[in-house]
Write a structure and sequence with these properties.
Pfam families: Glutaredoxin (PF00462). By secondary structure, this protein is mainly alpha-helical. The protein is built from 28 helices and 11 strands. It starts with about 35 loop residues before the first helix and ends in a 6-residue tail after the last helix. It folds into 5 domains: about 50 residues, no CATH class; about 100 residues; about 90 residues, Recoverin, domain 1 (Orthogonal Bundle), CATH 1.10.238; about 160 residues, EF-hand (Recoverin, domain 1, Orthogonal Bundle), CATH 1.10.238; about 100 residues, Glutaredoxin (3-Layer(aba) Sandwich), CATH 3.40.30. α3 runs antiparallel to α7, α4 packs antiparallel against α5 and α4 runs antiparallel to α7. The strands form 4 sheets. It has a 4-stranded mixed beta sheet with strand order 9-8-10-11, sandwiched between helices. The protein has a 3-stranded antiparallel beta sheet with strand order 1-2-3. The protein has a two-stranded antiparallel sheet with strand order 4-5.
């Protein structure tokens, strides 16, 4: 086919100079031409190569194998693959194209979402085409019903609902002996998927560099956009909106940005309890709510104003930052001096300008400080506090560290006119509470595992925290009446269940709310020291004994199992949960 040799020898002879009777040149052996050997390996002698399409597929397969072979060699050689790609410059053509592509993609995803009318239509289709379980009265569907409902919904709503009716989605739900699933968990799954997708689209629109993370100003913009839709924030003074967004956004970064990179992962934000807590403000607060109850939700207007007032009261010189001396007045001066020192050492940045007051706590650091103290039992809060307790930065506490930390608490304790303490006894009690894996040291993992890490931290940094632990039995006796305690606990969350861990009906109700995706507060009366008194109070309220499970929604008693199941089967439970802010997705 070719007049010259394949390796370039004899390249000076062109086709016109080749004589027909010239002797044929010898072809080099296949070993000297790897491409020939490889080609023969895959296509043989050339006979029966097939169509052009087959040749193209074969070529792609060969190239893919060569690529994989090269990748394997690179990995064996220890070469580092490229992991950094420079982002396009602001205003460049590639940057504009990227923004346009992102806008079109998000617009397409938004158009594929079901709206409120679509969701209502789907719920009607589900209820009209399901069957009632004779044993439980629950509305269920088998796979044939599932496929039929999919066809009906597609006709009424359009093809955008089809993706929810895939076989894999049907298999996700718990089935009974007849292979049927309940329609309500499926419908709530659709609602949650739609709402989470919408929230992700909204956040992605604010993600300027499209890296899947939100920066503080982007998170603040997202919260600002939610304010008009949150019933408890609609009347916020316009002058306070910027400060509120700053305070609210900071909690997301405290819990979703543990390494303090200034970027919160959108996926992590969507799945965090912080977003659930923020969405509880959808609930209309028709009844009077005390300032204390409102302050328990970080995102409430009352809580944000409390934080601002606290900072302004501590900032005596009104320079916008807090010195160590000013911070000592926090919580009426009950925090120990060594803890304040350690908080500044570990969590307060040095001033870039230097000078006499080189290290003062700004408002952002103050928010971290407050969040850690108010969330001592969470891994994030306890991690913050443990860094302060770890005096030598070794990752663990020794008996000497405990002695040093508690010495300041002991001093404040004596100054308050309390009885004399033996520090060694307190140290031994802490060791008994934590039960560390290594008997000579306490690590952060030990504090998290013992479920009493927040109490231990309070005992070592706050004389009031130690007093509460020391008087825990007396405090239980002096607590409010059982009726008052039930009312108080019932109003703390959107859905509260008073239960017994051994009660099968309680388990059924808890499972129902869990399947609905409701974040409930459950109080197991058989595990509470005052459980019997509270059970009697509930029996009076409900008018039956035993009173459990007793379910409160929006602070209002709904009833026990029969009432909950009646509402559930009548399709009234979900609207009730929506009105209470228990279901926002």
């Amino acid at each position: 086919m070719y007049g010259g040799s394949s390796d370039g020898e004899g390249g000076g002879h062109d086709a016109s100079s080749a004589a027909p009777a010239a002797p044929q040149k010898k072809i080099p052996p296949a070993s000297s031409m790897p491409w020939v050997r490889n080609l023969r390996r895959y296509i043989g002698t050339g006979a029966g190569l097939g169509s052009e399409a087959l040749m193209e597929l074969e070529t792609k397969r060969i190239l893919l194998e060569i690529f994989k072979e090269r990748q394997q060699k690179n990995a064996e050689a220890g070469s580092i693959p490229s992991f950094y790609k420079k982002k396009p410059e602001e205003g460049s053509i590639s940057h504009r194209v990227q923004r346009l592509a992102k806008y079109r993609f998000l617009k397409k995803q938004s158009d594929l979402l079901l709206n409120a009318d679509d969701l209502d239509a789907m719920w009607v289709c589900l209820r009209e085409n399901c069957v009632i379980d004779d044993a439980t009265g629950a509305e269920k569907m088998n796979y044939e019903d599932f496929c039929h409902i999919a066809s009906v919904c597609t006709e009424q709503i359009g093809p955008k609902c089809r993706r929810f009716f895939s076989p894999s989605n049907f298999m996700k739900f718990e089935k009974d002996e007849a292979g049927r699933i309940a329609i309500l968990p499926f419908y709530l799954y659709v609602m949650r998927t739609v709402s989470l997708t919408q929230a992700r689209i909204d956040m992605s629109e604010l993600d300027e560099d499209s890296d899947g993370f939100l920066q503080p100003h982007e998170m603040e913009a997202y919260i600002r956009g939610l304010i008009p839709n949150l019933a408890q924030l609609r009347d916020m003074p316009p002058a306070f909106i910027q400060m509120y967004c700053r305070i609210a956004a900071h909690k997301f970064f405290f819990f979703c940005d543990p390494h303090r990179r200034g970027k919160a992962c959108i996926k992590k934000v969507l799945l965090s309890n912080c977003l659930q807590e923020l969405m509880e403000l959808h609930q209309e607060s028709e009844e009077e709510v005390t300032d204390t109850e409102q302050a328990e939700n970080w995102f409430s207007l009352t809580s944000a104003q409390r934080i601002c007032d606290m900072f302004l009261a501590l900032d005596k010189d009104m320079n916008g930052t807090l010195s160590k001396q000013e911070l000592k007045e926090y919580a009426d001066g009950t925090l120990t001096e060594i803890f304040i020192e350690r908080a500044f050492d570990e969590h307060v940045r040095r001033s870039k300008t230097g000078g006499g007051n080189a290290r003062e706590m700004d408002f952002e650091s103050f928010l971290d400080f407050v969040l850690a103290l108010e969330n001592k039992d969470t891994p994030e809060g306890l991690t913050y506090l443990f860094r302060c307790l770890d005096l030598h930065g070794r990752g663990y506490l020794t008996t000497a560290d405990i002695h040093t930390l508690f010495r300041d608490v002991h001093q404040k304790w004596i100054e308050g006119g309390n009885y004399e303490l033996c520090i060694e006894d307190v140290r031994d009690e802490i060791w008994d509470m934590v039960k560390p894996a290594d008997p000579l040291r306490i690590t952060l993992s030990d504090l998290l595992a013992c479920k009493q890490g927040g109490t231990v931290a309070s005992m070592l940094i706050d004389v009031r925290g130690f007093w509460a632990h020391d008087n825990r039995e007396n405090l239980l006796q002096e607590e409010e009446e059982p009726e008052e305690e039930v009312t108080r606990l019932a109003s703390q969350r959107a859905v509260v269940i008073f239960s017994k861990s051994s009660c099968c009906m309680c388990h059924t109700v808890k499972t129902l709310f869990s399947d609905l995706g409701v974040n409930t507060a459950v109080y197991e009366l058989d595990e509470d020291p005052r459980g019997r008194e509270m059970e009697k109070a509930l029996a009076k309220l409900i008018g039956q004994n035993p009173p459990v499970p007793a379910v409160f929604i929006g602070g209002i008693l709904v009833g026990a199992t029969d009432k909950i199941m009646s509402l559930h089967l009548g399709g009234k439970l979900v609207p009730l949960l929506r009105a209470a802010g228990a279901i926002w997705l």
